[in-house]
Design brief:
Elements: H1 3-31, E1 35-38, E2 41-44, H2 52-64, H3 66-92, H4 103-109, H5 113-141, H6 146-170, H7 176-197
Antiparallel strand pairs: 1-2
Helix pairs in contact: 1-2, 1-3, 2-3, 2-5, 3-5, 5-6, 6-7
Length: about 210
């Protein structure tokens, strides 16, 4: 394969990884509107997909560098904010009563702005922390054992993200015991997903 084809393959891989990262961020924000009870823990449904964003962000970092990773983090935050705004706008629009009151849309998708803001703040703080820890590991520790750089960076960013999001979104709204239940469920699920997604770092080329 010549250099031109290699460049094309790299670009295509980058597009796919970034698209997957943005999609996971958006889906997790929407799913977080549902608080479920799983194995005795209260948990927001977005927790089942959001953890993949940490490994996907690490893949962006490896493939395109730290600056690109930072840009993608900010872009995802802006896109999620626009998405919430558009949901609010659509809910505000008067319904066409010839097809019914359509109250289901407002009930399901009208943004809870406290959750939106808490989610975006948690994403930015934790993902930037993950980026810097990943970069520090690669530049100051070792470029070997790629799984270790993902595991180390995620080990710090996962509980940080969960703490900011859970207390920012639900603190003072739900009983403290429920918020802590959501927090520990977040940490456990995100930790498990981190372990499952570790091999993903080997799917992209880079440093």
């Amino acid at each position: 394969m010549n250099r031109s084809n290699n460049a094309t393959a790299l670009t295509n891989t980058g597009v796919l990884v970034i698209a997957a990262y943005i999609a996971a961020q958006m889906l997790s924000d929407v799913l977080s509107l549902k608080i479920a009870l799983v194995a005795g823990f209260s948990i927001d449904a977005g927790t089942f997909i959001y953890p993949f964003t940490f490994t996907l962000r690490d893949m962006v970092h490896k493939l395109l560098g730290r600056v690109a990773a930072r840009v993608v983090i900010v872009a995802a935050a802006v896109i999620n904010l626009v998405m919430a705004g558009m949901f609010a706008f659509a809910a505000w629009l008067p319904p066409d009563l010839s097809v019914g009151p359509q109250t289901e849309f407002s009930v399901a998708l009208s943004p809870v702005w406290r959750i939106v803001v808490a989610s975006i703040v948690a994403e930015i703080v934790s993902e930037f922390t993950d980026t810097e820890l990943y970069h520090l590991w690669v530049t100051q520790v070792t470029r070997r054992y790629q799984w270790a750089r993902v595991l180390v960076s995620n080990s710090f960013s996962v509980p940080l993200d969960s703490l900011i999001f859970c207390w920012g979104a639900f603190g003072g709204v739900f009983p403290a015991a429920t918020v802590w239940s959501i927090f520990w469920a977040n940490v456990l699920v995100k930790g498990a997903v981190t372990l499952v997604s570790l091999p993903g770092i080997y799917l992209v080329r880079g440093e």
